[in-house]
Amino acid sequence: MAYDEGLAERIRERLGADLEISERRMFGGLAFLCRGNMAVGVTGDDLMVRVGPDATDAAVARPGARIFDMTGRPMRGWVVVDGAAVAEDGALAAWVDEGLAFAAGLPPK
């Protein structure tokens, strides 16, 4: 599956030159990791965000968000945000910052 290179580039711009951030192809898309822990990613035209189990319900209540379910087994703590819902830079920034904050709080891998 291809992923939206434009969305990936917008995420790169938001993350800047942070040396703790790396990129890796995952889930048929592209993932951005903070110290080895996935924070956000791009799959198709959508944004994947790691919000953590405690923030899942609040996250899926936001526009365009749904539980991440790639294999028929929903993954609590992860959401997918429709690409149209992150068309504005402010919306994308909020999701990227949330995913980055959660991943940064995890022990490095």
Automatic annotation (TrEMBL):
Gene3D superfamilies: YgaC/TfoX-N like chaperone. It comes from the Bacteria. Residues 20-103 form the TfoX N-terminal domain. This is TfoX/Sxy family protein. It comes from Streptomyces muensis.
